[in-house]
Specification:
The complex is a heterodimer of chains A (about 160) and B (about 70).
Chain A lengths: L1 H10 L5 E4 L2 H7 L25 E3 L4 H9 L5 E5 L5 E6 L16 E2 L3 E3 L4 H11 L3 E5 L5 E6 H9 L3
Helix pairs in contact in A: 4-5
Chain B lengths: L2 E3 L1 H9 L3 E4 L3 H6 L6 E2 L19 E4 L5
Parallel strand pairs in B: 2-3, 2-4
The chains are: A alpha/beta (about 160), B alpha/beta (about 70).
């Protein structure tokens, strides 16, 4: 919709036109301020917790990752590239191989993620049905935002009457 | 030619109080919109409705997402 509006404004004589392609959903998902009388849309990105996610890089050594995972309660780390794009998951139970093996050779590629713009009510319903306690949340372009839990979604929805 | 921008650029335009237009229907604009945005639904975007904007200043448009 907005691309057509941008072109139409240009046709109407506007010379400096920008199209915010990620749109209002991306804005909301980052918890940025909004005006309006509500009801307010609730999306996963608003409660994505980056601090709760253990991450590692494609080239990290398996031995180092194993050591990291031994010191925290996490069951896995999220594997990122240098742009913070989620490329894989390294589970504690799959830490098999020589210490100097690169994570990229043993990780699970393409872990399930949801977008930060995912509507919170529908996501919570799916997580309950599938009994998933937490999911990895990314931007629309795949950059890690954090993880979101059922409890965090429930709190978010309770705050949005 | 309109230029696609991402979140960081949009935040800057909003902070600089540039012209921002939400092209969604009025009810969706009324519920929530970016600070300072005005509402001109795509279906009513015309020379008359765009007259509230300054053609010589930059203007950014948005809807829900890519579509």
């Amino acid at each position: 919709m907005s691309p057509r509006a941008a072109w139409q404004l240009e046709a109407l004589g506007f010379s400096d036109v920008y199209d915010f392609v990620d749109g209002k959903l991306e804005w909301i998902s980052r918890g940025l301020p909004l005006d309006g009388e509500g009801p307010h849309f609730a999306v996963a990105g608003e409660v994505a917790d980056r601090a709760s996610v253990l991450t590692c890089r494609l080239g990290d050594r398996l031995g180092d990752v194993a050591h990291q995972l031994d010191t925290v309660p996490h069951e896995y780390c999220v594997v990122l590239n240098d742009h913070d794009i989620v490329l894989g998951r390294m589970r504690k139970k799959n830490l098999r191989g020589a210490d100097d093996t690169a994570v990229e050779h043993v990780m699970e590629p393409g872990p399930t993620t949801v977008r930060g713009t995912e509507p919170a009510p529908e996501l919570l319903e799916r997580m309950r049905k599938k009994r998933v306690p937490a999911v990895i949340v990314t931007t629309n372009k795949g950059r890690l935002l954090g993880t979101v839990t059922q409890a965090a979604l429930e709190r978010l929805l309770a705050s949005r009457p | 030619m309109p230029e696609d921008i991402e979140l960081a650029d949009m935040r800057r335009l909003v902070e600089e109080r540039s012209q921002v237009v939400e092209v969604l229907p009025p009810s969706e604009y009324a519920a929530e919109h970016l600070p300072g945005a005005v509402n001109i639904p795509l279906k009513s975007l015309s020379e008359a409705t765009a007259a509230q904007l300054d053609t010589h200043s930059r203007v950014a448009v948005y809807c829900w997402d890519y579509f």
